[in-house]
Write the structure tokens for this entry.
Amino acid sequence: MAVTLADVAARARVSAATVSRVLSGNYPVAEATRARVLAAVDELDYVINGPASALAAATSDLVGVLVNDVADPFFGIMASAVQSELGSEKLAVVCNTGGSPERELTYLTLLLRQRAAAVVITGSAVETPEYAAASAAKVGRLAANGTRVVLLGRPASAAPEGSAFAVEFGNREGGRRLTEHLVSLGHRRIGYVAGPADRTTTRHRLEGHRAALAAHGLGGDADAFGRLTVHGPYTRQSGYDGALELLDREPGLTAVVGSNDAVALGICAALREKGLDIPGDVSVAGFDDLPFSADATPALTTVRLPLQEAAARAERLALGREESPAGGRHLVLAEVVARASTAAPRAERQGAGTAPGRARGGGTTCGQLCTGSALRGIFDSVKGKHAPGGGVP
Amino acid sequence: MAVTLADVAARARVSAATVSRVLSGNYPVAEATRARVLAAVDELDYVINGPASALAAATSDLVGVLVNDVADPFFGIMASAVQSELGSEKLAVVCNTGGSPERELTYLTLLLRQRAAAVVITGSAVETPEYAAASAAKVGRLAANGTRVVLLGRPASAAPEGSAFAVEFGNREGGRRLTEHLVSLGHRRIGYVAGPADRTTTRHRLEGHRAALAAHGLGGDADAFGRLTVHGPYTRQSGYDGALELLDREPGLTAVVGSNDAVALGICAALREKGLDIPGDVSVAGFDDLPFSADATPALTTVRLPLQEAAARAERLALGREESPAGGRHLVLAEVVARASTAAPRAERQGAGTAPGRARGGGTTCGQLCTGSALRGIFDSVKGKHAPGGGVP
DNA sequence: TTGTATGCGTTATCAT
DNA sequence: ATGATAACGCATACAA
């Protein structure tokens, strides 16, 4: 990369300053010289030096995106959506934190070092005080430095007042509605395989669940509630193990909710292994409505979170392309998608019909496997461009 | 970010050069001054200026990863694996090209501009001459610039001789083995829903398929072969449409192969809609062995590609942490994973047993839905840490 | 072992 | 509208 601005200037018989002006385009330049410069750039195959430019201008075209793991569709979809909102001038730096607070802090520092133009932090926050303080401090630092920070799926409280925008997910509402759906179908003993205990997302979803139970007088005391709740990571394995544990504690369960679609799939596997029919013997529901959920057998009842839209909005906020409402907080609504994995419990089977509390959204709760056009209909409306494996290898 | 090297130097009562040496750590410094400098850094909360550092040193700690779409697990898994091989000093820049050659070139230029330390280009190459030339030129340019380039899942021929390493996928072999598996089960009329025609991956998988047919005298002439082959994107929708088209052309099909797991799932949906049993009436197989494949009903027979290992190796090559064999080419072997979606065709049902040509790998071809422990066994061995939705939202 | 001086390639501030 | 020139913050060859 020997060719520099000076080379181009020499070839176009102008000063380096003029070349710079032509390239950045934010300054009036005579059309004739402009053409000469562009020609020289083309002939010399000149490529601007990013670091030098960033140093002189004190800005960079890097946008950081923090995710737990891009291989997880929940985050992959958001990362992808952020990208698609990025112009072709900006570069997205995707960082896998693995859910570890330390790595998140490390990456934040790295991004600080790069003088990133913006940072989008996705996923739930860890609620331990030390971490919360450290994380908030880093965000404040970033903001003070001119980097725009947007929290995506994380409460605004995770950053110092006014230092970041937040696009929050309606986890509590979604959790409440999902459990209301089950209660309205007639379920009374509902197990819950929750996420790690110290995560905001886990807490909010669980709070919604409990609120729905309480509203129908099913909450019980803390002990009773605890008996029907187990914690674990947001993995399929956790769902599998959790379901077995719950079945052991309470054989009379008629429904089990997973903190996640992956967890729900694990629950399904465990139930099938026990010889239980879904939803004949036990109903199962998840959360997030990831693409593969509609494909499972039976198709999974879950809570849809418009991840792409949310991520796109977060990115627009990060780029300053969208105005933020007062307080800088946005709420993304969650919506129950009722599919084939939930139905009325055996005892109340007859006359269930279209139970109240059922959400719209192309869902269906046919007792058995949904085949054919019904399933496809759901699938298409749900997935948009994000079919699993939908790209070109 | 007012605090600079000079500030730290002043506080530690040393020169800026010494501070620089302490921070980069590649130069002897007295322990006492070293401690003083570190203390000053800490007290001032100093963060090095990345662009300035990159400019002065003519290197950067950015590593580019080009993918079609991170939301697609095929790419998400590779992007994630690349990340995990990255030390905490380097930053991965993930770029979604959407499979578009133009965007790929744009991103390559952007990375050139950033003076990226390395670039990993994943996915198949487009085989049109103009694009191939332009892409190869950019790669050559990158290499000349000191950026290490690694092709992952793309033939070495896509880059100028000696300018890049290549970790190639055994698409041809995998395609051949998969079709051999079907032939050995007794299938004679096998449909194929291929990817876009101008992609290397598409061509290689299809060539393997055809080679297997030819080896058993089933290839037929080009016309006959063409009748059983349709092209489309690597999406579920494509599989759905393609299967209907093939069924229309040749109702006597006993098996359909998808270019992809997502395509295969689409094929399954179409067949079910037609009232056909899988694998009772028609067998279905995919490619890649993505996590959700083991979860489908019936569990999908597919070709496993060790994406994580391949991506990790690519990254090590990019970082210069692993020696490359002569020629700079690595081949990643593909392996058939036989599951429940393939079985002997009806006419030959009896005595199928364990057909020859069946690959190992925890697979199974029970005629009906695999439930319980068998399914879980496959699942666990296949997925490792990459369960769908396996992270912490 | 440490300090000094220079250069990296742009952008931005003055002039003209 | 264009040119000269001074930052920008750090790394490194060279001195000491």
